[in-house]
Design a protein that fits this description.
Elements (H helix, E strand, L loop, with lengths): L11 E2 L1 H8 L3 H9 L5 E3 L6 E4 H13 L3 H8 L12 E4 L2 E4 L2 E2 H7 L3 H10 L16 H12 L6 H14 L4 H7 L2 H15 L18 H8 L6 H13 L7 H11 L4 H12 L7 H9 L5 H13 L17 H11 L6 H16 L6 H11 L6 H24 L18
Antiparallel strand pairs: 1-3, 2-3, 4-5, 5-6
Helix pairs in contact: 3-4, 5-12, 6-20, 7-8, 8-10, 8-14, 10-11, 10-20, 11-12, 12-17, 12-20, 13-14, 13-20, 14-20, 15-19, 16-18, 17-19
Amino acid sequence: MDHPDKALRRDYASAAEAMKILNVRQQTLYAYVSRGWIRSVAQQGQKGKLYLRDDLTRVGMRSLARSGHGAVAASAMNWGEPIFPTSITEITEQGPRYRGHLAADLVRSGASFESVAELLWTGELHEKTPAWPVRKPSAELITLTATLTSLQAQGNVLESFALVVLLLGMRRGPVAERLSQGKTLPAAREIMQTVVACCGFVGLAQTWRPMQRGESVVEGLMHALAMPVTTENREALRAVLILMADHELPPGTLSARVVASAGGTLHSCLASALCATSGVDVGRMYERVEDFLGQTPTRAVLVKRAHKLHAQGQSVPGFDHPLYPKGDPRAAQLLQMVFARQNPSRELRAISRFIDEMRTSAGLLPRQELALVVTARAMGLPRQATAALFVLGRLAGWVAHVQEQRADGTLLRPRAKFVKPAQPTP
C-alpha cells in the first residue's frame, strides 16, 4: 500500500487531464508516449489508459525550459536535463556502466564487490579480490553500537549507519586535519566494513557483528545477518551490491556531492547521503513494496491490489523506472537469479506470475526496489535488511562521487526562485 502521507496523491492522470496539463492535442500526447517520454498503463476493463503525472510534469518543464535558464534548472532537478558531467557511471538501456564496464557483466564475470568498488574509485578493475585490512573496533565504537542495539536500531537502520560513520570520522581528528591528510580510500574501506558490521542490527541477533580478519564484504555480511552461508545466497548478495553500487544522481548521491563541494570530510559526505536516503521516497520505498506484497501473497491477491491502486489513480510500488522505459535491467537480472533458485517457495512463484501478468495486462515492468525486496525474501531476510543492502552497495558509488566533486573544485550552489505565498482563505 502507499505510504499514509501519499494516500491522497494521484500518481496517474487520464488522457483528458494529461492533455490539459501539457496543453497539447491527443495526437501529440500519443507521440510523447510512443517516444518513451511519458509512461502509460492500461486499466482493467477499460479502453482508456492512465498517464504518469511525474512524466507529464517533466515533459511540461522541458517545454518551459526553452524560455530561459531558470526553467532549465527547475526541470533538471527532477529526472530532467543533466546538471553536471560525470565520468563515473553511464546509464544505458542495458543498465549502469561503471567506468566503461557494464554492471551486469561484472556480476556475470564473478567480480567481487571489492573489485567493483576499487574500479569506481580508481578506474582500475582488479582480477583478484583486493585484500582490505580489517581494523580493530575502538572502545567508542563498541559503546555506540551497544547503545544503538538498546535503542532497537533495526527500525532506524540508515540513521544508525550515519551516526556510526560520523563517529569513525571524529576519531580521525579535526575536520581540517582529516582533509589535509587525505587517506580517502583507507577511510572508505573502514566505513564500508563497519556498515557491514552494523547490518547485524537487522540480523537474527539484532546486534553489531564486526568483520573478522580475512573476510570479504559478502562473507562478513552473511555472518552479520546470520543467514545461511550458501552459494545461492553468496551470489545473490554479490549481485545486489554490485548492481546497486552507483546510479547517477539520486538524492543521496547529490547530497554527498553538495557536502563535498563545500569542503566536507568523506565521513560528513557519506553521513549526509545516508540521511538523504533514509526518507520515505528513497530508502523507505522498500517498505512500501513490502507493504504492497504483504504476507504470503498469492497472484490473484496481488493482481487485485494492483488494479485497485490503478482505479484510484495511484502507481503500484516497485514498478516502472523513469530512466528505463524498456524495463530496469538490474531488476530483470536479480529476478532471473531469484526465480532460478532451487526449490523456490510458493510465495516466489506467486510473485513471479504476478510480475508476468502486470507486464502483459498493464505494461508495467519491475524496477530495482521490487527486485531487492523479492531477493531479500528469497534469502529469508527481515524487511529492514533491504534498505541496508542498498546503501551498503551505494556507499561505493558515493565515495567515487565525493572524489570527483573534490577534483572539480566548484561549489554546488543552486539559486532559489522566490514566489509569493498563496493568500490564506478567509
